[in-house]
Amino acid sequence: xxKITIKVxxxxxxxxxxxxxxxxxxxxxxxxxxxxxxxxxxxxxxxxIPKSYIRSILSSIKSKNKYVFTLSAGEKxxxxxxxxxxxxxxxxxxxxRDDCVIALGGGVIGDLSGFASSIFKRGxxxxxIPTTLLAQVDSSIGGxxxxxxxxxxxxxxxxxxxxxxxxDPITLxxxxxxxxxxxxxxxxxxxxxxxxxxxxxxxxxxxxIINLTDINLVMHAIKESCKSxxxxxxxxxxxxxxxxxLNFGHTFAHAFEAVKKYSNDLIHGEAVLYGMMIAxxxxxxxxxxxx
Length: 291
Description:
CATH architecture of the largest domain: 3-Layer(aba) Sandwich
Catalytic activity: 7-phospho-2-dehydro-3-deoxy-D-arabino-heptonate = 3-dehydroquinate + phosphate
Enzyme class: lyase
CATH class of the largest domain: Alpha Beta
EC number: 4.2.3.4
Number of helices: 10
GO molecular function: 3-dehydroquinate synthase activity; metal ion binding; nucleotide binding
Number of domains: 2
Pathway: Metabolic intermediate biosynthesis; chorismate biosynthesis; chorismate from D-erythrose 4-phosphate and phosphoenolpyruvate: step 2/7
């Protein structure tokens, strides 16, 4: 399957989602095409990301001013302390708004990097390179950024759209199977709330997606999920009404995650899966959903 481009149309905040096998090696040219004035690049990632991904991206960027900031993996990095560390790096290297922050990792890295980017000098260019299935189909798209606080998950944040989302499905091969299932929960969410035809397709191909036995089928699932989210975000960027449907299962999910103290005992996609099951069951009992 060739490179796929999906446009998120938001007037001055529009951006492409580019999906392609082994596209990491083209990161530099893809970014240059979107933000040609960028001279400095800060790649933010975590300790679980293979070094080969980092090398591939850095070698594709034709600038001497490129830096890497590696964080601990997991929700416990998604806080104000790590936000300040990112801001200090940007000030240290004298970044301006024409330069570029690149988030390489899952939802935590994307949310944290996006939030820091949005408040640095009122907004520096920001690129998402999601490496988990959940981030590729959901959290990297739509401009929601945020960090956790003592008051709850994502209680501090902004709406700040990336300039580009670059998705390489090959990165999924480095994921534990558990994280593939967690990402599949968000794919299933789109099918349930928006696309019955896609749901029927998933019934036939879920095994291939979860086990990565056919990358072309995985790319199709990612594409359909991204298209669904783009449609909703284009109609309701700031979540005033329609975009709330994307929170299907999340009310319960966030409560479960809080009880588990955002630990690895329950990762986000798993919580969403349980949340969708409970929300659906409750809706049936309240006669709000027919089965």
